[in-house]
Amino acid sequence: MGISDVIPIPVAIDEELEKWTIWGRPLTDIWFTTVEKIHEIIDMGPIKNVLNWGRKNSLWFLMQPMGCCGVEMLVFGCPPYDCDRFGIFPRGTPRQADVMIISGYITRKYLPAIKNLWEQMTEPKWVMSIGECAISGGPFYDSYNIINSVNKFFPIDVYVPGCPPRPEKFIEGFRALQEKIKQREDLRGY
Amino acid sequence: MTTANDVLNALESAFPGAIQDAKVKFERQLWATVKPDKIVDVCKYLTNNHDFDHYSGAAGVDRIDEGLFEVTEMLASHGAHQVVALLKVQTPRDKPSVKSLTGLYWNANWYEREIWEMLGINFEGHPELYPLLLTDGLMGAWPWRKDFKGYPDYTTGERAVEMLSSDGYSEYKIGPMDAEVESGAYPYEKPEYPTFREREEAEIKSESEMIFHMGPQHAVVPGPFLLDLLVDGERVRKAFLDIGYIHKGIEKIMENRTYMQGIPITDRLCYMAALSNNESYCGSVERLLGIEAPERAQYIRVITQELSRIQSHLLGTAEFLTLIASAVYSPFLYMIIDREDVLTLIESVTGARINHSFVRFGGVRNDLPDGFAEKTKPVLKMVREKTEEYKELFLSDSIYRKRMEGIGVLSPSEARRLGVSGPPLRASDTSYDMRREDPYLLYKDLDFDVITRKEGDSKARVEVRLDEILESCYIIEQCLDQIPEGSIQEKLPKRIKPEPGEAYYRVEDPRGEMGFFVVSDGSDKPVKVKARGPVYAYFQALPPLLEGVYIADVVAIAGSMDSCTSEVDR
């Protein structure tokens, strides 16, 4: 389909336009495009870097304290450690959050609920695993109720070890995630 | 005042033949084995004639060598005397059944439910034997039995299978699979009971009622739990609590560790009161070993535990004030800044911010650092000033008062009946503090007041917490002035093997009565560890407290309890 089918322009101009390309693609492809195609184009070009720059500097995390690390997470959001200066900000609801922090033991009973929370979050989204329990089960590795391979259920980008890690370690973990987003090396590929 | 010997003599004359190997241990504790058919009568007698009106908990022990299950009922009194009665009931292992005490003590409900789901002991006359902490998949496996083949067969991670539901959502089926159960690879008989959802929906009586979910994820409360409210318009008609979202099986794990390895696990029981949990566990093992910490170590324990109480109360109050006026974030920010200074002090002694593992059997891990007293005094002065400021700022503010005053009122008799302890009980005009009732460490020599309030509402609970911060500062100052030189650790063998026996030791957690019940069989691992936590009792008391209130007040009531879900689920 040529442009002249939609917009009343002389056929000669239409033929001329069909020869034009943008980033190696015919212009007509881009003119009659869909959302998917726009995303394809954004993925190729430098626009993606601009978007990721914005994303990495406004990582709002889901306030979902689960254990000892949850208490350190509360402190991490407060003035002594002041995560706001990196654009990191706590949110109470998954609908507004970009990053989910798994901050403790996932049990048989909690796994469906936390999976729901993950599905409620809007794209783009990332997940971090903080503390020994969320990495390998930690001190409770031999419990009958603990899931000790969380990475099987979530695409975890950053692991922060410690039992519990200090709030400074949280900052380090977020910096690592920001670097990953900037380099476009995160698991979900934004 | 009634002593344990008085109670013992009265009991033996009232029930000849029903009480076996009764003895008085650790000055104030009465231990006895009661015949199974007499337990309700004995408890009724103790309650009516000797003021044992506080049902403190129950622990189930699997004595697999003798082919027995043993249930230990713990009874105490709300201030009438200091005797703790620990009554053991034995039941055969092949058909375990014990009489329920729910008719006598309202709060026996959850303790018995827990023993039923973990050990499979039936409680005759229990009104609602439904699972409390476990999921359906584990029901009937009886994980606390000694012959439970848990790890690695039931460990979930490797066995979870993702399945798509009819709506397109992914669901997880965690082993054992139905086919495996049918083929007999995992033999168990699953008990029959209505699910949580069915129990809720059975209560819906009219068209105008609906179920309103709060949780399991909450923004500020550290730990997930599900609070389902059956609402009619704006009023809550009935509340249902579902816990166990972070049930880690701490008690079972401690059975598989040596005594020393158990200390770090007690930290993770409640990370806001890690030092009190350490103290309770170590005190219990010390009683089994028959030793006591040197005087300097006791002073260090008191100092660190009171510092820990200050930081816990600061965070608890901060959480509550944020919950009731969420748009105003300032109390949280102010109090966290102060808490950091206290945490720095604790860290300088124990080396960790929240999980300390600092207390040892017969002592502490290390001495106070140089110049600790000089560093502590300015912090205490600051905490005092700030606490006075918070009282003025928040407790006299009209908005906060409107949200707190007259909300969630617990009358003294109601509070005792529901079994709550700690600040909520003391806010209801009942002076009940383990530091006075069951004096441990140096508290009988120290000068302090037990803070009480008459109102019993949410505001009174916050006031009690803030005043206790001031009282803790006073205790620490006394200790810093009096602390003697000397050793900080009793000499003990590397591998600890206590004599066979049982011990129970209660301390005053920042949240209330915390007790550890430890059973030894002479080996280097405990047979049974039972943690009796205060928040478990708070949670059990929540549903009756929430009946008939406005939805907006639910947070103001539940938050004022200063809950810590990790300790409830264990």
Task: Quickly list its features.
heterodimer, A: 190 residues, alpha/beta, Rossmann fold, 2 domains, five-stranded parallel β-sheet, two-stranded antiparallel sheet, 7 strands, 39% helix, 13% strand, elongated, B: 570 residues, alpha+beta, Beta Polymerase, domain 2, Cytochrome-c3 Hydrogenase, chain B, five-stranded mixed β-sheet, three-stranded antiparallel β-sheet, 19 helices, 17 strands, 40% helix, 18% strand, globular
Can you give a write-up of this model?
- The complex is a heterodimer of chains A (190) and B (570).
- By secondary structure, chain A is an alpha/beta fold.
- Chain A has 2 domains: 37 residues, no CATH class; 126 residues, Rossmann fold.
- Chain A contains 8 helices and 7 strands.
- In chain A, the strands form 2 sheets. Chain A has a 5-stranded parallel β-sheet with strand order 4-3-5-6-7. A two-stranded antiparallel ribbon of chain A has the order 1-2.
- In chain A, α4 runs antiparallel to α8 and α5 crosses α8.
- In chain A, 38% of the residues are buried.
- Chain B is α+β, with helices and mostly antiparallel strands and 570 residues long.
- Chain B has 2 domains: 133 residues, Beta Polymerase, domain 2 (2-Layer Sandwich); 320 residues, Cytochrome-c3 Hydrogenase, chain B (Orthogonal Bundle), CATH 1.10.645.
- Chain B has 19 helices and 17 strands.
- In chain B, the strands form 6 sheets. Chain B has a 5-stranded mixed β-sheet with strand order 1-2-5-4-3, with helices on one face. In chain B, strands 10-11-12 form a 3-stranded antiparallel β-sheet. Chain B has a 3-stranded antiparallel β-sheet with strand order 15-16-17.
- The two termini of chain B are 36 Å apart.
- Chains A and B meet through α5 and α6 of A and β9, α6, α7 and α10 of B.
Number of domains of chain A: 2
**Mean of all residue-level pLDDT scores of chain A:** 82
- Overall SS class of chain B: alpha+beta
Q: Output the CATH topology of the largest domain in chain B.
A: Cytochrome-c3 Hydrogenase, chain B
Helix content percent band of chain B: 25-40%
Read across the widest sheet of chain A, the strand sequence of neighbours is: 4-3-5-6-7
Number of strands of chain B: 17
Q: Biggest interface and which pair forms it? A: A-B, 48 and 56 residues
